[in-house]
Write a structure and sequence with these properties.
The chain contains eight helices and no strands. By secondary structure, it is mostly helical.
Length: 138
């Protein structure tokens, strides 16, 4: 599986998306303590790499994988820094995906979450602003 992660190219949209969907499902359905550290690093590196893809759908699914990885304590800071960057430079779909996936997280004391929410509230896209404002997040 790890060999497959590193063999997918940014321009091979179909395979990249399928691989990212598998990663997301795996992360969503597996408990953190049951996942090998090498696999987690491979998922992280693959997601970061695919954030640079030309195809917007590939970037969208890479963003979702990073949001899933941010739930794992050892990857939280690294993923949140990347997600903050996506909130500044990403598409509205990527931004709303981040906001929707991270909405359950408490934001008190989490500088990255506060920055993501504030960036979303100030976004030029109405849907992004609306999603960031839901739930009385101040």
């Amino acid at each position: 599986m790890i060999n497959r992660l590193f063999s997918v190219e940014k321009d091979d949209s179909f395979n990249a998306i399928q691989l990212l969907k598998i990663n997301e499902t795996f992360l969503e359905n597996t408990r953190e303590e049951n996942i090998d550290n090498g696999i987690l690093w491979a998922f992280f590196n693959n997601s970061i790499s695919l954030l640079q893809a030309k195809e917007k759908d590939v970037r969208y699914f890479a963003t979702i994988c990073l949001a899933q990885l941010s739930r794992i304590e050892q990857f939280k800071k690294l993923c949140m820094m990347q997600l903050v960057d996506v909130m500044s430079n990403g598409s509205p779909n990527e931004k709303t995906a981040i906001l929707n996936m991270l909405c359950e997280k408490p934001i008190e004391g989490d500088v990255y979450m506060q920055q993501i929410i504030n960036t979303g509230k100030a976004d030029s896209n109405y849907v992004v602003r609306y999603v960031a404002s839901r739930g009385n997040r101040d």
